[in-house]
Amino acid sequence: PPADWIERALAAAHRHPGAIVQGATRPDPDEGDLLYAGPDVHSQTIDPPGPWAETCNILYPRAVLESVGGFWEGPPVAAGEDTDLAFRARRSGADYVGAPEMLTFHAIEARGWCARIAGGWRWQHVALAVKRNPELRRQFTLGMFWNLDHALLPPALAGVLLAKRRRRWLLLCLPFLWQRLPSYGRGPRGLARAFFELPGRVLLTLVEFAGFARGSIRYRSPML
């Protein structure tokens, strides 16, 4: 974190006694070149207070943590436990506020495809957090889909199946493909890179979607 992070965090805590305080998070500028290294890159950009209450830069009063029993340890892997904690704390009466000046940096991690696929499959356990905190559905597309990519996937899959009869049904795939197409500018190199990465992005969405379907059945909490 920046050298003044602790000072700013303490000041924010004093301004909001008893509240959960989330600071801003940005990719580490010292590793900025990695952002353009390829598609297998992960970091965090958070403008507080975010709906998910990520714990990479957040303050909880000890009394609040003790009153709700700390992190819930139900999921077999880390997936939604930070958001679950925030929702339980807020239901107990704690305020949740943002402190943009409490800035920290998140590492920029270059991940391989195996790690990305495993990460996508892991999100199935978010369905359990949603079951415990139905208010989370307000953050989903149509209250059901993790994001717009997932909402556009079923029509695309239907288009692929129906194309066996009439090829025009493939038009149903276009909104999904356009949504998943990354943007690297309109130059030849940018377009070539975008189309080169598109199949991998589609595969990742399919894995996430299948994971959520499995989680929906496993935890009896429908979400895709």
Task: Walk me through what this model shows.
With 224 residues, the protein is of the alpha+beta class. The chain has 2 domains: 1-111, Spore Coat Polysaccharide Biosynthesis Protein SpsA, Chain A (Alpha-Beta Complex), CATH 3.90.550; 133-224, no CATH class. 45% of the residues lie in helices and 11% in strands. It contains 8 helices and 5 strands; from the N terminus they run αβββααββααααα. It has helices at residues 5-15, 62-68, 81-91, 113-122, 126-132, 148-162, 174-180, 188-219, and strands at residues 20-27, 41-42, 58-59, 96-106, 109-110. The chain has a 3-stranded mixed beta sheet. It has a two-stranded antiparallel sheet with strand order 2-5. The radius of gyration is 20 Å and the shape is globular. The model has no long low-confidence stretch (mean pLDDT 90).
